[in-house]
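Incident review: delayed structure delivery

Summary: a single-chain prediction request sat in the queue longer than the usual turnaround. Root cause was a stuck worker, restarted by the on-call engineer. No data loss occurred. The affected request and its eventual output are reproduced below so the record is complete for anyone auditing the incident later.

Affected input:
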Amino acid sequence: MTQQERQERSREKIYRAALEEFGASGYDAVNMEQICGKHGISKGMMYHYYSSKDQLFLLCVERTFADLNACIEQEAEKWADQDILETFKAQLLMREAFFNCHPLQKTVFETAVLRPPKGLAKQIRELYAPIREKNQRFLQELLVRMPLRPGISQEKAARFLGGVEYFLQYYQRGQPEQNLHSILETAEDVFYMAAYGVFQPPAGPAPPQGAAPQGAPRASDAESEWKRSDFV
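Output delivered after worker restart:
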């Protein structure tokens, strides 16, 4: 075995150990000594490659995002001929299937995206950029296949739907007992309400040209919530 091969093997061992600990316990409950002690890694070897817990966590985040991004690229070609609702559901299904197969990475993903450790948010946003860009392209491609209300641009509509997807991430995290069928039913209900509104507008004069009917979801309302996160 060459020196390069030994180094790659050592790095992979450290990564697997860190992923197991962060994936089981989250960020706050893990430390370097714990990873070394539980996985038979010498402190000398550990600190030769990684100097802090933050570096290890970012390594796990980077690998998780890269694996998810590869999965999105592989599956996206299958959505081209589906209608807008089926495409929206297919993306949620793909993510859920990925994390069902990789539960440790699911914990790392949720920690990084939903509650990033203090001081690491900027680095995590940068690592997430390729997935965020794919999400935005995905939503824009959906929108060209569906007529918009007068006065609502594709950009605002994409931000609104991005907020809906972000909400569903939170919802799924809080409903671990739900099976995939129930999650998809919820996604379908939320999508229809987001796309077509909830309340029947009251009788009276017609709204001004370009205004959404009263009670209909407005892209501008969701936009402020969407802008709070860089991960949709």
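Verification: The chain is about 70% helix and 0% strand.
Action items: add queue-age alerting; document worker restart procedure.
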